């Protein structure tokens, strides 16, 4: 294939061949199937999908895999991204009858992966999504009593443990993307080990035991080869490898570090676009903001390209997209066009995008990290940081799926060598309170659970304190009745607590409106640095003196009025005029429906409203945000009442330039200093009330 690898590159790259990406010399088989004249459009589409299925690297090993799955209770399946593990293995299990009458669960650390994979597999099975193939993610599910293959987030299946501690509906549980070691995946794996011992025990006793009718099979799948740890954890498990299809990828490192990776990514993209043969470009960026800003600049320059040039089709891809929103990523690139996919690390291993020949790797990702404090005042941070060597290799590998490819790293070779080999499991660096509460509900504890890695002692202590202060645990670390109610909500304990408190204050309707917006994956307020004044003017009428929570409530109320009285188009226009994201409002409305159902189950009347009163709402939120209170200091900063950190009010807050004696806030964000975001004023006397409540317990 003709390649011009030696053209000048904008960031001063030099070549280096990576030993990790040698060709496996797997020849690419066949071309697209010839259309059969008699078939209808949909059946020819189905035939094409079947042809694609049979060409996946995993297809060659189908019979051998089924044999091994039949023979072993636990299998660890390793294979290159795109080899067909996630989409094919569940179908093989179903078709071979190994699932008996039960369901096959396939867990994913990310919501978007679960929904998009379910869509693909439903198409391959030629069934409607939600029938025999479905999905279940937080605040969104599509499955029915006929569902046999269910793609779900690891969080959803951990939640199911509370109602069904043996996960008896599932005869096979596939833990996918296990190498990511997400907190919920680790908790699931620990539980699966004991559940399997319980469900399969009587099998060995040859009739002496009780229930032999519902044994559990576990399949752990991973894209990286570090499998021994899973193998050791499940004694007697079998490790299997799928031969991948990986073509050579030429890796270029930047000769010097890049200060502005978004700008370098843009310049590198146009360099590829003008100098390199056709083939799609995949750019890895840390998060949604960078994706949106790069999308804008690439679009501006792409519009100025001469007419005889290939056009550019930009496809953003990140976790907060609604189901189906990113589907154009999977469609064939139109003629004389180059797709430019802007993705977070979701495209590293969870989702394989066809057609990619060039990868631009900024070397950055967002990482959640909990800063634990012994006093309990810890907080989650989401910081942009350098990726690991393992991620860098996965990212480069995305360029070599269908033929030889190129990977442009916007960092030096020395920077690559300085990266940690692989990421630390999430359980070692995340807030544990939500998971700990769920475990307490099923009589378990992080201290006694047999985990692959134990969390740090100070972060365990910190979550115990949080749950105690919320009233979910007593001093003996036992779960309280209030704690059980809190665990029933698919929310962080702080917001579940606020909803429960709203019953007492008679403002459940208002608190549900606010919490639903805070739980939506898209942001309500669209920020625009160029139109700052216009934004501020348009939003003036929503601003509430009490702060951001009641400002959100004003927006929701105003939107609802429009929604009832006007046509759909004018709602959209209204949102645009006020720089509001309608997607957040629509998503929040679905979330609110689900939270109302939970309220109903718990006997909380969700229609109770406090009218125009402000205090009931902030007081209810205060019960949840009891850890997130800060008092004004003489120098204008704020000091946490628990945790002692000095914080400032975030510039995006309506209270940012005000001096308020006491505030509650949704979260702390750490940039160059610690900011409180989502802020409301709270009377100092109320903080005393909260303290008094604590002593009564
Ligand atoms: O799990 P693994 O990375 O081994 O592969 P997979 O996710 O099962 O993907 C197998 C193939 O299905 C890839 O070639 C993908 O491009 C394709 N696929 C797709 O076209 N659309 C999706 N939504 C998901 C997968
Ligand atoms: Mg996969």
From TrEMBL:
SUPFAM superfamilies: P-loop containing nucleoside triphosphate hydrolases. Gene3D superfamilies: 1.20.120.1080, P-loop containing nucleotide triphosphate hydrolases (3.40.50.300). Residues 36-45 have a biased composition (Low complexity). Pfam families: DEAD, HA2_C, Helicase_C, OB_NTP_bind, WHD_HA2. The lineage of its organism: Eukaryota, Fungi, Dikarya, Basidiomycota, Agaricomycotina. Residues 13-22 have a biased composition (Polar residues). Residues 1-50 are annotated as: Disordered. Its EC number is 3.6.4.13. One of its GO terms (biological process) is positive regulation of transcription by RNA polymerase I. It comes from Lentinula raphanica. CDD domains: DEXHc_DHX33, SF2_C_RHA. One of its GO terms (molecular function) is double-stranded RNA binding. It catalyses: ATP + H2O = ADP + phosphate + H(+). Residues 268-443 form the Helicase C-terminal domain. Belongs to the DEAD box helicase family. DEAH subfamily. Keywords: ATP-binding, Helicase, Hydrolase, Nucleotide-binding. The keyword Nuclease does not apply. This is RNA helicase. GO terms for cellular component: nucleolus; ribonucleoprotein complex. Residues 66-243 form the Helicase ATP-binding domain. The keyword Nucleotide-binding applies.
């Amino acid at each position: 294939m003709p390649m011009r690898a030696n053209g000048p590159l904008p960031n001063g790259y030099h070549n280096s061949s990576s030993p990790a990406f040698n060709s496996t010399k797997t020849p690419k088989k066949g071309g697209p199937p010839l259309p059969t004249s008699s078939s209808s459009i949909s059946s020819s589409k189905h035939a094409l999908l079947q042809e694609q299925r049979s060409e996946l690297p995993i297809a060659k090993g189908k019979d051998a895999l089924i044999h091994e799955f039949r023979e072993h209770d636990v299998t660890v399946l390793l294979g290159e991204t795109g080899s067909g593990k996630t989409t094919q293995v569940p179908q093989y299990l179903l078709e071979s009858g190994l699932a008996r009458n039960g369901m096959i669960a396939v867990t994913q650390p990310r919501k978007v992966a679960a929904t998009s994979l379910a869509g693909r597999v439903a198409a391959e099975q030629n069934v409607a999504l939600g029938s025999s193939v479905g999905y279940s993610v937080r605040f969104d599910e599509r499955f029915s009593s006929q569902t046999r293959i269910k793609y779900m987030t690891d969080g959803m299946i951990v939640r199911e443990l509370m109602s069904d501690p043996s996960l008896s509906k599932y005869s096979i549980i596939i833990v996918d993307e296990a190498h990511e070691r997400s907190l919920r995946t680790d908790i699931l794996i620990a539980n699966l080990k004991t559940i399997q011992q319980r469900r399969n025990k009587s099998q060995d006793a040859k009739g002496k035991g009780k229930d032999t009718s519902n044994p559990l099979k576990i399949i752990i799948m991973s894209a990286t080869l570090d499998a021994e740890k899973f193998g050791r954890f499940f004694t007697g498990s079998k490790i299997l490898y799928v031969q991948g299809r990986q073509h050579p990828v030429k890796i270029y490192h930047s000769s010097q570090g890049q200060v502005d990776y978004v700008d370098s990514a843009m310049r590198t993209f146009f360099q590829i676009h003008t100098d390199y043969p056709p083939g799609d470009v995949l750019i890895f960026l840390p998060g949604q903001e960078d994706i949106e800003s790069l999308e804008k600049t690439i679009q501006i320059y792409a519009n100025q390209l001469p007419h005889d040039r290939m056009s550019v089709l930009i496809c953003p891809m990140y976790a907060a997209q609604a189901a189906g929103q990113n589907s154009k990523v999977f469609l064939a690139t139109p003629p004389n066009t180059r797709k430019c996919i802007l993705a977070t690390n979701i495209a590293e291993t969870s989702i394989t995008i066809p057609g990619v020949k060039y990868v631009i790797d900024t070397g950055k990702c967002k990482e959640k990290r909990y800063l634990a404090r012994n006093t309990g005042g810890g907080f989650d941070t989401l910081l942009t940081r350098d990726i690991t060597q393992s991620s860098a290799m996965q990212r480069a590998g995305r360029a070599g799926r269908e033929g030889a490819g190129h990977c442009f790293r916007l960092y030096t070779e020395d920077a690559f060598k300085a990266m940690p080999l692989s990421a630390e499991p999430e359980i070692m660096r995340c807030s544990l309170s939500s998971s700990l509460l769920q475990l307490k509900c099923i009589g378990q504890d992080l201290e006694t659970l047999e985990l692959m890695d134990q969390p740090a002692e100070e972060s365990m202590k910190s979550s115990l304190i949080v749950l105690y202060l919320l009233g979910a645990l007593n001093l003996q670390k036992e779960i309280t009745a209030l704690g059980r109610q809190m665990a029933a909500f698919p929310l962080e304990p702080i917001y579940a607590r606020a909803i429960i408190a709203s019953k007492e204050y008679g403002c459940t309707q208002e608190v549900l409106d606010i919490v639903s917006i805070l739980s939506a994956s898209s942001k309500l307020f669209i920020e625009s640095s160029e139109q700052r004044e216009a934004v501020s003017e348009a939003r003036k009428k929503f601003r509430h003196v009490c702060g951001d929570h009641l400002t959100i409530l004003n927006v929701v109320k105003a939107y609802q009025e429009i929604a009832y009285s006007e046509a759909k188009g004018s709602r959209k226009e209204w949102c645009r005029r006020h720089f509001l994201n309608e997607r957040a409002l629509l998503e929040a409305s679905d979330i609110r429906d689900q939270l109302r159902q939970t309220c109903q189950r718990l006997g909380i009347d969700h229609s109770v409203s406090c009218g125009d009163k402000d205090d009931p709402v902030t007081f209810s939120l205060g019960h949840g945000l009891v850890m997130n209170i800060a008092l004004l200091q003489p120098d204008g900063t704020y000091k946490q009442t628990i945790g002692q950190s000095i914080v400032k009010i975030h510039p995006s807050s309506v209270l940012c330039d005000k001096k308020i004696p006491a505030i509650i806030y949704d979260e702390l964000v750490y940039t160059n200093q610690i900011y409180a975001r989502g802020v409301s004023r709270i009377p100092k006397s109320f903080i005393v009330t909260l303290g008094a409540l604590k002593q009564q317990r």
